[in-house]
Specification:
alpha/beta, Carbamate kinase, nine-stranded mixed sheet, two-stranded antiparallel sheet, 36% helix
Length: 243
């Protein structure tokens, strides 16, 4: 008797979350416990399906290194401060996930032994295979690189099948849909099309890493509570960028 085919399309994913996604409505909380809990619930759903999940979290709700450098702060210092902001967000996310019963490990690119373990690729992969959600914090550990680049780098390092980029918009448009109501949404795009149209899917370094290694990216609205599950199952969600 033939084995039943799994409905899951993506068995190992990298979920990229912006720090801003954790901010409360109208900026009430820098990190909203309710939003963290909601994200944890969505992650728990796909974790229960057997999906291996790595998460890369930004720090923009607390500190933006590039913005600070534009206002006169030395760029390297500003970027290191941004990396530390991602650690705070990662710990909040770990707390939210463990509160709903999801085993979680935090890997940091900057050593801080008391609160997270150093990033070691083989260890991270082993932890994913044993059922842990792995959260990558502190970016790449180097200034001048964004958390988009971290997501692209880690996805390729751990042999993920896709990057889920969860945003506040339900896909990629040819113009800002908040400013231009008639903006066209793309259902699918090739990397070449995204480049030729100058669409800001990710920053240029991250995008090049994905393009060179044929790492697909799905951009979708994280506040639709079924999107992550639907994307894992291969249902159409948001915009797919692929080779």
């Amino acid at each position: 008797m033939a084995a039943k085919k799994s409905p899951i399309k993506y068995q190992r994913i990298v979920l990229k979350l912006s720090g801003e996604a954790l901010r409360g409505p109208e900026g009430k909380d820098t990190i909203s416990p309710e939003i963290v809990s909601g994200i944890a619930t969505q992650v728990k759903q796909i974790h229960g399906m057997g999906v291996e999940i790595a998460i890369v979290i930004g720090g923009g709700n607390i500190w933006r290194g590039l913005s600070a450098s534009h206002r006169g702060m030395e760029r390297t210092t500003a970027d290191y401060m941004g990396m530390l902001a991602t650690v705070i967000n990662g710990l909040a996310l770990q707390s939210g996930l463990e509160a709903v019963g999801v085993p979680t490990r935090v890997h940091t690119a900057i050593e801080m032994q008391q609160i997270a373990e150093p990033f070691i690729r083989r260890r991270a992969v082993a932890q994913l295979e044993s059922g842990n959600v792995v959260i990558f914090v502190a970016g790449t550990g180097n200034p001048f690189f964004s958390t988009d680049t971290t997501a692209a780098l880690r996805a390729n390092e751990i042999s993920a099948q896709v990057i889920f980029k969860a945003t506040k918009v339900d896909g990629i448009y040819d113009a800002d849909p908040k400013k231009f109501p008639k903006a066209k949404k793309f259902e699918t795009l090739t990397f070449s099309e995204a480049l030729s149209r100058r669409l800001q899917v990710m920053d240029s370094t991250a995008f090049s890493l994905c393009m060179d290694n044929k790492m697909p990216i799905i951009v979708f609205d994280m506040f639709n509570k079924t999107n992550i599950r639907d994307a894992v199952l291969g249902k159409h969600v948001g915009t797919l960028v692929t080779a």
